[in-house]
Amino acid sequence: MTELSGWGRYPVVEATERVSENFEAASAGAALSRGLGRSYGDASLPASGDDIVASSRRADRILGFDPATGVVRAEAGLSLRELNRVFLHRGFASPVSPGTQYVTLGGMVAADVHGGNHHVAGTFGEHVRSLRMRVADGRVLEVSEAAEPELFRATLGGMGLTGHVLEVEFRMERIPSAWLYTETRRVADIDELVETLLESSRHWPMTKTWFDSTQRGRGMGRGFAIVGRWAEPGEARPEAPRLRERVSVPPLPVGLVNALTVRVFNELWFHSQSRPHAAIAHPQTFFWPLDGLRHWNRLYGPRGFAQYQCVLPIERDARVVRRFFAALTRRGCPSPVSVIKDCGAEGRGLLSFPKPGISIALDVPLRGERTQALVDALNEIVLEVGGRVYMAKDVLTRGAHFRAMEPRLAHFLEVRRKWDPDRRLRSALSVRLFGEDA
Amino acid sequence: MKALFLGATSGMGRALSRLLAERGESLFLLGIPAQDLERSAKDLEARGAAHVGVLVCDLLDPASFGAALDRADEALGGFDTVVVTAGLFASQERLEADPAFTAKLLAANFTNTVLFCEEARKRMLSRGGGTLCVFSSVAGERGRKPVVLYGAAKAGLTHYLEGLDHKFRAQGLVTITVKPGFVKTSMTEGLKPPPFAGEPEGVARQVLRALDRGTPVVYAPPPWALVMLVIRALPRFVMRRIGF
Fold it and tell me: How many Cβ pairs within 8 Å bridge chains A and B?
């Protein structure tokens, strides 16, 4: 038995983890797969202590790469960091990058991750051509749009609940250089932030914004917008960017993230970038800024923290964002890493998170009932305006809220019933959100 | 470099073969099973190896070594580096309870590994030398309670490798003995990692430096050199009392 938790370090459960280079063999009879454990909540945790968790992290071989098409096939445990290390300097990048490189390909499929280019590139699943999977009855299948398309679509964003993803084949993007051209500019409040974001996304392939979650009233939603694109060879630095070695946060007896420290941090951060400026950025700084700080989740102390990400549709009424922010800041939300991003069209994954609208991501230290009440209040708004929450980040959403937000769940569960009538594949998340028995 | 591996599909062998692949070296993989060798070959090709060949060769079947080495020699156009990471492992309790497996482990980790090295070093010496890099263990440094049997085979192997290095270095054969302490691989899965536990990637970087420089002995990760210095110096009555 080992102790497992998601990146938020809450909850922590005792589990039997099967780690092997032969992930295909390890997945036989397992209830759930787990990669690098970077989903924040309970998505990678077993529903019960008797369930076996198969770890993919040693199954990391590249099984094929075609430089003419950019198509790569690899075992599911290959991390995005390793993929970057091998391919960035050769002119290829993953078409979609989430906020950290410490994710596996299997995890990127299971969460159907998105990045700053969602409005252009969609989710990772849009670029997946084929998956090798072990389904609940033990068979190993190749699954794609041509073979078992329904299972394929249910698996993209299906949080590992439709089968064990053993191999992933997807198309990488050809990049002119491994550096980025970026522009950063400050925005004074939430309205300007959203407006800037939507306007920038018309011209830039990558856009995101950071906002100061501690500001209320006039400065509510102040922050900055960061836009970018891959740099052309003439602009980029001549050398290949090195993925940096990391500073490590030690285990801390108490968390350093609280209302006061976040206020100070946000104030300094906001004023650090007073003038609009352009720069050639290292890919790690642009895509995965926190990867430089190993074990950064320890900053929140032993009690852990909750991530929360939702998307709010704005086509009917853009004021929902302001309303959401008012609810958020009124309750006090000391979140140092707060990101807003516009989402493009919905993908083909039956339960994929993004849909057109504004997505808001927060990190909040866990403070018992107070944090639960905050998430409940935010979810009420999300539900009312027809938004949804991101399962890979979630830990506190109530099942009833989730089911009310997800009219797509019935279809997903139907596919799952077909492939796994006895519900052999399950997780702590599926018990909490789908309302299954543990 | 034209490097021959016995045991490159997993753990430290996998990590080291990847570093060589990234430098664009030519590689040949011996090991089992065939499917695993094929998958590792694809991985190494994608990472930049100039050429990767494979052939099934079981450490438990010493009769096959000569032919396998000839095939590898032919494919690489004469290997100049041989890396042996293959071996068996089991806890002392398991070995005490299972004499048949003990016989197998002792044969694989000592006799057969030595026979393989003999075949390999003769071929390299016949053309002026090369590098023979073999993974032994800190378990071979001293008789210790948790590794009585496994350690005995590794002690024999370490002695053999030291002898080779003394005898043949002047003729151009560099012998490198790698002595890993605790490294987090499938081999040690389920054991509680002690302080100074290493990752296979870190060990691989250390061994690559040793290959380039001809360092005869590598403790990996490095703090184990100090740990073993102390262990070697402890009087017997102390060793008898401690559980290490």
Answer: 32
